[in-house]
Amino acid sequence: MSTWHGLIDSPYRRWLPVTDDTPAVSLNEGNTPLLRSAFLSSLTGCEVWLKVEGANPTGSFKDRGMTVAISRAAERGAETVICASTGNTSASAAAYAARAGLTAAVLVPRGRIALGKLSQAVRYGARIVEIDGTFDDCLRVTRELAGHHPVALVNSVGNELRLAGQRTVAYEVVDALGDAPDVHCLPVGNGGNITATWGGYRTYHQAGFATRLPRVWGFQASGAAPLVHGAPVADPRTEASAIRVGNPASWDGAIAAREESGGLIAAVSDEQIFAAYRELARRDGVFVEPASAAGVAGLLDQHARGQLEAGLRVVITLSGNGLKDLDASLRDGYTATETSAVTADVARALRLAA
Ligand code: F0G
Q1: Is 28 among the annotated ligand-binding positions?
Q2: Which of 50, 112, 134, 340 has the fewest CB atoms lying closer than 10 Å?
Q3: Do the annotations mark residue 191 as ligand-binding?
């Protein structure tokens, strides 16, 4: 019998901005698997752990923040919540809004989000607007709308509630490992999750639950790496659509996480991202969406550059589920043998020994 009832009703509640008056709108998010990667550990000489955030109810880490944001919106009597998204935030917002009986309005860049994520928003009953522009355009319009209409903004920008929820990933890691790791790797798009993950480690450290702090290593796709270049990118490009962001809203938070932790924010190519994406599934049995492999690609890149000392304990956030983006998965093509339904034919197709 599971005793887990989602983040708001978990031991982490004390760190969340909720009160007894807050209705807990939950899908039992959080408490995700932390798996040791034999493959990455032996390859790097480190102890590498994978935080599988695709195991959250809508398939990404966004649920951690959304349970808080939607619960508080419901408490305030909001009727409509609004967000811009590369796909996962909209899927999560739509699900939690459905559960709370609220309307979700989601703005997405037309033709640029994975179909699984769009399908989620459709199925959860969101009001969907496809914008002829980038995610950054969607976010600009969303903020303007939220300033002039009675809607609750549930993007992490200016929404401390989302970040507070997303901090819980660090609490779970420390509780599972007994202390903070040496390095925490993760993909970076709009900058919210690196901000929240670092904030979580700091909170736990200050409270005495961890004796140390990790270095935070964030990775952007090289065609969408404004934080690496130090300037916004007008036309961000990467096949990892979730992190196709040219002007991160949590810019300052991301840079602070890097500076305060003595970490780094670096770029990895799409080739590196997709190589990591394939290897994670084939070697560790974990199917992530392409953007989620950026942390793994980044770790391997640092290792190849001689920047990763052996013996470190490393945690990598795998931010979203591979099932969200089947186009990306099948783009390579695949091989399968067609046979009749005769057992002997199937045995031959499988090249099974007699
Ligand atoms: N990984 C995945 C799967 C994401 O969906 C995102 C962001 C990130 C990593 C990066 O996190 O933005 O906090 O730096 N997705 C947002 C969205 C932009 O709209 O779903 P971040």
Answers
A1: no
A2: 340
A3: yes
